[in-house]
Amino acid sequence: MTEARLEAWLDETRSFAPSADFAKHANAQPSIYDEASKDPVAWWRTQADRLSWSTSPTKTLEWDLPFAKWFSDGTLNASYNCVDRHVEAGRGDKVAYHWVGDAEGETRTITYAQLQKFVAQAANALSELGVQSGDRVAVYMPMIPEAVITMLAIVRLGAMHSVVFGGFSADALSSRILDSDCQYVVTADGAFRRGAPSPLKPAVDEALQSCPGVKAVLVVRRTGGDVTWVEGRDHWWHDIVDRQADTHTCESFPAEHKMFIMYTSGTTAKPKGIFHTTGGYLTQVATTYNLVFDVKADSDILWTAADIGWITGHSYIVYGPLINGVTQVMYEGLPDSGGRDRWWKIIAQNKVTTLYTAPTTIRTLMKWGHELPGAHDLSSLRLLGSVGEPINPEAWMWYRQYVGGNRCPIVDTWWQTETGAIMVSPLPGITATKPGAAMRPLPGITVDVVDNEGKSVGNGEGGYLVISEPWPSMTRGIWGDPERFKETYWSRFPGKYFAGDGAKRDADGDLWLLGRIDDVMNISGHRLSTTEVEHALVGHPAVAEAAVVGASDETTGQAIVAFVTLKLSADEAEKDQSGVIEELRVHVSKVISPIAKPRQIILTPDLPKTRSGKIMRRLLRDVAEHRSLGDVTTLMDPTVVNMISGLMDEHQNDND
Ligand code: WTA
Fold it and tell me: Is residue 414 lining ligand 1, measured as CB closer than 6 Å?
């Protein structure tokens, strides 16, 4: 986001008071902030009682900066907490998921009692394949109920899932499997996208060529397409899971038992394996889901429109909602599978009360016109949520007016893969909201905005977002790399967690998130590092050098712009520029994911470098955003940047 654009967005004076209707029945009362801040650690201990513990914890926090333990002498089973305890309490007939397929009319309804049986069968099958407590299992699946069932079965056995987004390439999958030494993979033959099958199994086969440690692959039949089969390694879900007993007695594990790994982009090419443990993570996802979404388990139908392959899917499609025993909609398709009003149909048909999605999707829906939501009955909605990137006030207002009928509070929730659960957000009915502001830390959470020296900034000032006190769902580290964990998050401001986001406190002291300040880009709410994309580009035989920046984009928030110098002579490149560019875009999408495909690639004979040889990405970002260039005097050759600027204008619309 450019500064100028941000300034245009920020209208701190527009504020919506908490709705009185909402306040009357809200789960939290305004006093909650004071209660929690008196003794946040003790407050979190009371929140842990939302879970069913086999051994109730007597310890709360043990803090050996930056390593935290929460509730460490408690024991529990994550899957039992999500499923079994609801059935035992007589709520087995309650619907857990109204699953909606990519194709209109394809639905599945799964009650908690059914979910319990499916999870038991899957756990029994995974045990038969050899999965044990402590093992890592990669999950590479579409948005089908089996994805949730698989995750619950894995943690039931005390093993860890590492869910890899189904849109990632074979290379991305294999590097993640190798990094955490997964011995098992659960996948599907393919997924459906806008009615067309899109294969997944071939990527697994390709990935596993470099992963000799994988012993077994479990494959759900979803599309019915042809698949290559490795005898002895590959097993069909319907062959092995369906014949299992539908009961499974689970073991309890210590609260600090490792639960899952989720890879996310950092500032280097190598993604970080962020891992979470059981008791603290579950406590905070349960609490935040309940308070932020003001969950009424008896009447709400909640829809988190995210993919299971991201942390939002983990925390707010699987664990937070299931612990709260709610009914959800889970949707397989794209926003325009079956037509651009598909979402509105899903909301009307299922009487969805709560919708949680990302600004990039809101902007896309907005582009398609407010007539579409206007043509459907969305009166069941009572609350709207946003996550993944700063939401621009324009999109916020559109969401409020055309989706929420000017009656639904909007919760703009700031958090990260590393934080595990929501950290900063209004509480509906309690906190006022402002279009574009995440407002204030949740009860029990202490964040600050600090300047370069780590000093708190005053109201009306900006700086870096830090988290000052440990919180239950904080990541316990980066898989296999405790040094990188310390270095990345705990070294910039000693004693404080450095989130990597810019933030501002407005005149009222309310928080506005201003986007990443490091080399992490946010493309449609997906985190990608500039280095990751540069590595992919220089991996192509024709590329000599590449510099990648995230430039602001109306729909996707940021978009990737790559500046590339080729090994080919200028003449050769000149001959077939668009061919090379397209080839490079396809190459990046193959190496990382279609999400990482650059919006624009500028071929240039040179890149702007400092005298010490560092590429000046700051200048390239200015170029990509058509801004006037700042100080270029430190450049080795200041003419290069003007030349690139010229090329950029020339090729403005080439790559769309
Ligand atoms: C950004 C997604 C502004 C932020 C849950 C953060 C946000 C990164 C918001 C984490 C928000 C997420 N307002 N920015 N409400 N929510 N972000 O790990 O830059 O995929 O650091 O977790 O997304 O992305 P991640």
Answer: yes
Alpha-carbon distance of 20 to 2, in angstroms, equals 37
Q: Which ligand 1 atom sits closest to the C-alpha of 438?
A: 15
305-357 residue pLDDT tens: 999 999 999 999 999 999 999 999 999 999 999 999 999 999 999 999 999 99
| Level-2 CATH architecture, domain 524-655 | 2-Layer Sandwich (3.30)
| Cα Rg of the chain (Å, integer) | 24
- Match domain 3-503 to its CATH number in 3.40.50.2000, 3.40.50.300, 3.40.50.720, 3.40.50.12780: 3.40.50.12780
The residues spanned by each domain of the chain are: 3-503, 524-655
Q: Helix, strand, or coil here: 63?
A: strand
Q: What gap in Å lies between CA 379 and CA 646, rounded to an integer?
A: 51
Task: Decide whether any atom of ligand 1 lies within 6 Å of the 158 Cβ.
Answer: no
Q: Which contiguous run of DSSP H or E holds residue 383? A: strand 383-387
- pTM as predicted: 0.90
Q: Is the peptide bond before 66 cis (omega within 30 degrees of 0)?
A: yes
CA of 238 to the centre of ligand 1 (A): 38
Q: Which residue has the tokens 């920020």?
A: 10
Pick the atom of ligand 1 nearest to 514's CA: 3
515 alpha carbon – ligand 1 mean position (Å)? 8
Give, for ligand 1, the residue of 357, 527, 593 to mutate: max count of ligand atoms closer than 8 Å to Cβ.
Answer: 527
